[in-house]
Amino acid sequence: MARVGFVGLGDMGSRMVPHLLNSDHHVVVFDIAQDRIRAMTALGAVAADSPAAVARDTDVVISSVMSDDIPAAHWGQDGVLAGVRPGSALVVLSTTTPNMLNAIASRMPPETHLVDAPLIGGVRYASDAKLTVLLAGSDAAMALTEPVLAPFGDVVRVGPLGSGVAYKLITNVVIMAAEAGLREALDLADALDCSYDTSLDLLARGPMAAVVKRALDRDNPRAIRDSALDFDVLLSADDGDNLKMSAAGRRRLWAAVESASPPPVFFDLTTHTTALPEFRSR
Hints:
Blueprint: E1 3-7, H1 13-22, E2 26-30, H2 34-41, E3 46-47, H3 51-56, E4 60-63, H4 70-74, H5 80-83, E5 89-92, H6 98-107, E6 113-116, E7 119-120, H7 123-127, E8 131-136, H8 139-149, E9 153-159, H9 163-191, H10 196-203, H11 209-216, H12 224-236, H13 244-257
Parallel strand pairs: 1-2, 1-4, 2-3, 4-5, 5-6, 8-9
Antiparallel strand pairs: 7-8
């Protein structure tokens, strides 16, 4: 049994902590939302009052926050790095940029370990322990953290520190294009006065089947805003002007985010909620 910390109990983290508890780990948790902490403590986790407190009480700290939230969760007297102890490890699950990962690495205390371990798979994969974890770091750091990450699914060692972030961004180019492409296909259905149901049925018969199935799965929630933010991260990692298709997809997803209240989820990509303004009332 290991002493494991978990910072960030959103859609993914809240599904991952139970697997750690079921593996008989001692789990200490923190989130800025108290109701999320209470949900995990009801399952047997121990609450901490800051990310630093999580780190001080554990041997492996798992950070699962959005890229923009990394500084708030990691820097300062209450941040993770203020509590990481010699010999312990920090695991960064976030979809982020090489520059942000390097910023974490430059602040790591002496004699501590850092791995980047982004995830492939959404909420349902997290619930079913079928995620793919892209583990990267030194041999010693990976040896320390891999057994802790194993309950989440398949752990794939992808190279030295930074490789996980890099490969996650590479896979996201295709994943994000598919998400935006689904919405744009239905934009064309609107323009040609065609049925969404028929369009989705036909798309589900070809190579877009997995994307359509995920979009129609109401038990696999994901805010479209989170996908749009991932697009922002993806484009910020490109020093040139190479990701033109991703740039266009980003614009379409942000338009979908801004189209509805309450904030739309992935399922709404298949409805007129996220259609272009002139077709939204259909």
